[in-house]
């Protein structure tokens, strides 16, 4: 009996070790954020001809195609099983779909580096939401980091000082997207632990498609042939981002994956420069440095508080966007 239990414990330890592979997690995280950058690039390219609502709808349609293939085989339908509460899945899809529309709206109206930088503010919303909804005390470290971070947001947007790059609606969309991402981080972290990556991705895309479908008669157009490569790229990159992101959190701790989020600014500046002739200004670079530094301080502080058992929710490093 003792031998059997020891053998079982050893097997469990080996399974845990095989599941915990930081290098695999980092590679998957980098791939996920690269795919996310490509997805926002395709959305921006399409925004000259299509409404952001229909861009989000077509993105979901294309990303669901691999699942349609799986559904044709009864033996492959196991990903339809929901292990947690279905209501959480539905809430994630509702908030996540609003997030996608706002993010696409931000990229359609702002230079890529501007939109990406403002979206980094999602981590800064976390202590505020924790204080309002969970009654968490926000100490001087996080309070100062949040205030400095939002000062960085003001440096980035500079109302009235950015000329044609300035867009009130675009910045409002970016801030709304950041807030929605933070909200998802407060209430939905457990999905990554209890659900298979395929289930999380499928139900987000499927329910999001159903939410957007009623708006298509009002916003939709028949895409032209020149739009199809971008629509396919949008859906494929979105699908790959979802899968890679969810798997990254299976292989590595969130604290290791979260900082990789900031590699998006590199791709945003590169794509903006090569494709749209967008050169990041001094205020964008300075504001991005402030926002990223402040966000990392919040992440590290909340990790410390979580280890001390002083947070009622998961730490901010576990709110890396998994909802696009």
Structure explained in plain terms:
The protein has 324 residues and is an all-alpha fold. It has one domain. The chain is 73% helix and 0% strand. It contains 15 helices and no strands. The protein is globular and about 55 Å long. The N and C termini lie far apart (49 Å). Mean pLDDT is 81; it is low at 1-18.
By DSSP (H or I, 4+ residues per run), the number of helices equals 15
Question: What percent strand?
Answer: under 5%
Kindly give the count of domains.
Answer: 1
Rg result: 20 Å
Number of strands: 0
Helical content (DSSP H or I, runs of 4+): over 70%
Q: Main sheet?
A: none
- Using the alpha-carbon principal axes, give the shape: globular
Mean pLDDT, rounded to whole units?
81
Helix-strand string: HHHHHHHHHHHHHHH
| Low-confidence sequence ranges | 1-18
First-residue to last-residue Cα separation: 49 Å
The structural class is mainly alpha
Topology:
Blueprint: H1 2-19, H2 22-46, H3 52-71, H4 86-109, H5 112-119, H6 122-134, H7 140-157, H8 168-187, H9 191-194, H10 197-212, H11 216-219, H12 228-251, H13 254-257, H14 264-276, H15 282-307
Question: Which key features would you list for this structure?
Answer:
15 helices; 324 residues; mainly alpha; disordered N terminus
Summarize the structure.
The chain is mainly α. 73% of the residues lie in helices and 0% in strands.
